[in-house]
Design brief:
This protein is of the alpha+beta class. 48% of the residues lie in helices and 23% in strands. It is globular, with a radius of gyration of 23 Å.
């Protein structure tokens, strides 16, 4: 009887621990990544009319979304060279899938006619919105 009770209690405790780990994992999703863009635009009309609609469609289609876009203001150091944008992605893998997509590569070829690109990625802290 004692052996059966010990085994039953051990089983319930084990299931409880696994359940708590699952709940905890759901409460802490992976931190997003942010793509920061500072494009030096040589032809604003071409950039706005030819490139932006293409690239914005590809970003949306691949699960990214704009957090901010426009002219940046320097608080310290040199000001941004052109149009600044911040795009949020759920993961670095999602961003890389977008960057390697044929749709983005085609849009980038168009964009290079109108601007030079400076793009980098920053990993989120996981505390966004807190």
């Amino acid at each position: 009887m004692k052996t059966t009770l010990v085994i039953t209690l051990s089983l319930f405790i084990g299931i409880g621990v696994i359940g708590m780990q699952t709940i905890h994992a759901q409460d802490n999703p992976p931190a997003p990544v942010y793509m920061v863009i500072d494009n030096d635009i040589q032809d604003p009309e071409g950039y706005t009319n030819q490139f932006l609609p293409l690239v914005q469609r590809t970003i949306k289609a691949h699960g990214g979304w704009y957090i901010a876009a426009g002219t940046g203001t320097a608080l310290d150091g040199a000001p941004p060279k052109g149009r600044v944008a911040i795009v949020q992605w759920d993961s670095l893998e999602q961003l890389q899938n977008w960057r390697n997509s044929p749709e983005y590569k085609k849009a980038r070829e168009v964009g290079e006619k109108y601007a030079t690109f400076r793009v980098f990625v920053v990993k989120g802290t996981g505390t966004e919105g807190r």
